[in-house]
Amino acid sequence: MVQKRIIVGISGADGVVLGVELLKLLRDVPEVESLLVMTQAAERNLEMECGLGASEVRALAARSFDAGDLAAPISSGSFMTDGMIIAPCSMKTLAAIAHGYSENLLCRAADVCMKERRRLVLMPRETPLNQIHLQNMLTLAQAGCSIVPPMLTFYSRPQGIQDMVHHVLGKALMQFGIVPADFRAWAGAENETGGKV
């Protein structure tokens, strides 16, 4: 039985694999219904970075919506969700959300989450960051959003890129009380090294 509805937004930033793997993780959580919206730039990046078509990625979600459909259910606060994760979140999308500019369904759904006081998790992908990027992130953090950049983690001793991707997605999902089966939480230095530090 579905207990949570989570919107997954995929914008046109580098790293669309984050959104793809997020949908796969959610597919394995039966109590979660995933609702997908991705931009045209994201669809293009899926092909370039992952060799995937938009239809293949849409099939990973319980439901998907066109980014141009501002009449979709997720554009209204009366459609109940638990919140949204944007993975990856481009600086264009970040700026639009920070300034209330709902130019497409992805930005509108994020705006709805904010106005309804629902969880909004942003996974910004850009480096280096300029002052405007940082100011927009600060604005959103002050408004209650969780900023979860896909930073590399080494304490979990990743064996490859997928391990790193799954770890940072685990950090994002923890914002919703969801812990993926393969997520390895920090257990303290003694447990990690087998002795005292």
- Strand order, sheet with most strands: 3-2-1-4-5-6
- Ranges where pLDDT stays below 50 over 5 or more residues in a row are none
**Rg of Cα set:** 17 Å
Task: Give the overall pLDDT as a whole number.
Answer: 94
Strand % is: 15-25%
Q: What is the first-to-last residue Cα distance?
A: 45 Å
Q: Which secondary-structure class do the elements indicate?
A: alpha/beta
Count of individual helical segments: 8
Q: Helix fraction?
A: 25-40%
Topology of helices and strands:
Blueprint: E1 4-10, H1 17-27, E2 32-38, H2 40-50, H3 54-58, E3 63-66, E4 83-89, H4 91-98, H5 105-115, E5 119-124, H6 131-142, E6 146-147, H7 161-173, H8 189-193
Parallel strand pairs: 1-2, 1-4, 2-3, 4-5, 5-6
Would you give an account of this structure?
By secondary structure, this protein is an alpha/beta fold. It has helices spanning 17-27, 40-50, 54-58, 91-98, 105-115, 131-142, 161-173, 189-193, and strands at residues 4-10, 32-38, 63-66, 83-89, 119-124, 146-147. A 6-stranded parallel beta sheet has the order 3-2-1-4-5-6, with helices on both faces. Helix 1 links the parallel strand 1 (4-10) and strand 2.
